[in-house]
Amino acid sequence: MIIRSPEPEVKIVVDRDPIKTSFEEWARPGH
Predict the structure, then answer these.
(1) Between the CA of residue 16 and those of 1, 9, 30, what are the distances in Å?
(2) For 15, what's the count of Cα atoms within 13 Å in the CB-facing half-sphere?
(3) Contact, 25 vs 31, CB < 8 A?
């Protein structure tokens, strides 16, 4: 990941990663 400046956008990208992983695990069949 390339952090150009401490903007809210960076926080969104960082927060989006774990959320996406959790969502994919939750959306997995058989969970």
Answers:
(1) 13, 10, 24
(2) 6
(3) yes
Q: Quick one: 8 exposed, middle or buried, by C-beta within 10 A (0-12, 13-18, 19+)? A: exposed
The model's pTM is: 0.22
pLDDT in tens, 1-31: 666 666 666 565 666 666 666 777 777 776 5
d(CA 12, CA 20): 12
Cα(13)–Cα(5) distance, integer angstroms: 13
Instruction: Give the number of other CB atoms < 10 A from CB of residue 10.
Output: 14
